[in-house]
Design brief:
Layout (H helix, E strand, L loop, with lengths): L5 E4 L10 E10 L16 E10 L5 E7 L2 E6 L10 E7 L8 E9 L10 E5 L8 E20 L2 E9 L7 E3 L7 E9 L2 E17 L2 H5 L11 H4 L8 H14 L4 H4 L2 H15 L1 E2 L7 H7 L1 E2 L1 H14 L4 E8 L6 E10 L3 E5 L1 H7 L18 E6 L2 E4 L2 E4 L5 E5 L6 E12 L1
Parallel strand pairs: 14-15
Antiparallel strand pairs: 1-6, 2-3, 3-6, 4-5, 4-7, 7-8, 9-13, 9-23, 10-12, 10-22, 11-13, 16-17, 16-19, 17-18, 20-21
Helix pairs in contact: 3-6, 3-7, 5-7, 5-8
Length: 421
Amino acid sequence: MSLSLLGLLHLTKSPNMAADLVVTQVKVTTSTGEEKKFGFGEGPFFLQTTVRCNGGSGEPFQIVYQVAGATKLQQSPSFVATPGKIWTVMWSPGTNVDYGLEYAVRAVPVGAPVESGKPNTGVIEAVLPDKFERIDPIKYRLENKFKVTIRQGVAKRLEIAMPIQDRFSHQEPETPSTKDSDGLVKDSAGPGEYDVIRNQIVVAYNIRLNPKKLEAVAWTNYAALPPEAKQYNVIPGEAADVAVTKEFVDRHLPTNFKQTMTPMKAAQTLFRGLVKDFSYQIPEPPTFVEVCKAKKATCFGFSSLYARAISSIGIPSRVVLGVDLRNSRPQNHAWVEIFVPGTGWLPQDPTFSDGVDKEGYHPYFFYIVPRLNERVATGYLAPWSKDGISGMYGSTASYRMTYSDTPPQASAVTSSNITKL
């Protein structure tokens, strides 16, 4: 998935063109050009750039924007002008204001090296909140249905588990639940359909937090984890899955990273490494190992590797499965939540970051996930146990069967119906 880069050009005077170009001013503004210091997570922001032509023979030029070190867009109008003219360009990378976002803006002749112009540089400083805050609530009606169909044979025991929607960082049900899951346990389950249906009203929020407080968290804070987080401090999968996860971590973190990095710095490094290494592809390779070898993935592959990598270094994490409702057509989507002692579960989205900052210069969607209140989580990949039998949630729900002789022929379907209230 990707986000479109937005460009908006405003001319304040007759445009001119010359080799001697100077970026005299860069302002952080709203879309209407109003200068503003944005609150953390607000936006999108614009960079309003003033360029002056001091002299030259008149030739085409381009304005090069670099945000967090990555060249984001080149404005290349076909202008020819005389010295002394001034014009203004407004451009947005299409993201909300993140933490410590550095920029550099240059005006250079077309064909000249990007780095040849003298840059106007700065840092977009956000107004940081005092604490973890939920804001901008949107209410949804959610129906989840998980149906297991046994076409032939008999299951000695059929178990269905569906996680309750009350443990997501950005979302809570109107009436909280006290149990881990809805489910069904059926002995001697023959041919037929077996359903678990849950109707709920949930409220999704945007989130604001203070990155400086997260950066103060030390590895020692992870020594004693609450039960809700401890169960996620594992790397699910077969030995081969664990091996490719370790290869990814070893490629991006030094062997002594716990002595040289804070937990958030290590997590950022893995986040940025994933964004830079991997490309979005539909469909992704059929197995996790093949995804890691090909370095091509959908949102599920991006999220699966990131969550496994984070868990492997001692930070509990989980893949969240849900629906992105920002566009006219809802889309299934997966992202990640990581656990931070003293704060709770934090949402992060490497897939959307890949669409904005492919080179991984900056951890977009690490501290903020724009329009998070327009997502509804429907499940997560998490360990579960029912009647002493362990398994894994495979999606919104999961099932397992035991049998005596021939395995029953069975299939499962998950469906969600979401309505904004």
